[in-house]
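REQUEST ID: PR-0412
SUBMITTED BY: lab tech R.K.
PRIORITY: routine
TASK: structure prediction, single protein chain
INPUT:
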Amino acid sequence: MTSAYEYADEGDAQRALKYAIQHHSGDRTEIVEGVIDSVTPNWDHENAAEEIRDQIKPRVRALGCVTGSGNLDLPGSANWYVPDLAVAPKELAKGGGSLVPDQTLLIVEITSESNAETDRVVKRKRYAEYGAPLYLLVDRVDKAVTLFSGPGRLGYATVDGPHAFGTPVRLPEPFGIELDTSGL
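STATUS: complete
OUTPUT:
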């Protein structure tokens, strides 16, 4: 079995760091632009994730996908994300490792006071760059929801929002559903 030390010995510090983060036990830990960040969501944050998960679950099952907050690697960068919620094909989720954003159907990030700018700016840029087809930003600080689609190297081509909490937000195909944002 490969270890972080072996990657470090080979001069691949970035890969060694990602390996160490992925294989440590304990909390959810991310690397955002080279900075290690432990993620400890509060119950209000978890409630928002659950509200979305409950609404999309029937469609996710019909698509043969799963929801979760598994690891997302951004190869060639100093980033290793743990989204608040992601939808991925079940067969890819069973691989045991990380996924890349373009292997997901939807990524959801829910802001808190400490990470709002990271979710609004850095992760939005990186998810687009790495091909995540849909990025839903639930901004609890601004009490708004924004859906980004049409990823590319320079960002998302389409921005739907921000919509105040309580405004329905349409998730396009393959979901084809309207999210009730009143409980966020």
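NOTES: Residues 1-10 have pLDDT under 50 and may be disordered.
REVIEWED BY: pending
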